Q: What sequence folds into this?
């Protein structure tokens, strides 16, 4: 295993025998929340864009080497998607100090970001699935 595989499987979470996408999302969630709380939603959004750009190139390299398209163990897209969902949650209008107070609803927003991201990722409604 190399660094590319570690990156694409989000710390090997994609190697989970059951629901690798959910495992990758669960690993991505606390990382995204930490970035959201300590560095802000703009940083999280830009990090998601950066990860997406790097991931596209690395996935293409992996697929050309392995000759396997759409490997279910590659879950870096779940990390990027989860971070995008977290970065646009309504709580981003709060200041940093308000975000740290769980009674402001940030825990609910984190949970709903996870839930809706997984639903959309699994069902792929509308043009997403095409």
A:
């Amino acid at each position: 295993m190399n660094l590319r595989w570690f990156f694409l499987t989000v710390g090997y979470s994609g190697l989970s025998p059951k629901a690798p996408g959910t495992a990758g999302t669960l690993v991505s969630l606390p990382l995204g929340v930490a970035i959201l709380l300590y560095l802000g939603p703009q940083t999280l959004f830009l990090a998601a864009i950066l990860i997406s750009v790097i991931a596209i190139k690395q996935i293409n390299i992996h697929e050309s080497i392995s000759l396997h398209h759409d490997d279910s163990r590659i879950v870096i897209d779940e990390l990027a998607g989860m971070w995008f969902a977290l970065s646009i949650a309504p709580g981003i209008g709060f200041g940093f100090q308000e975000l740290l107070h769980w009674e402001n609803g940030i825990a609910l927003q984190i949970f709903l970001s996870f839930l809706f991201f997984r639903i959309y990722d699994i069902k792929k409604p509308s043009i997403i699935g095409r």
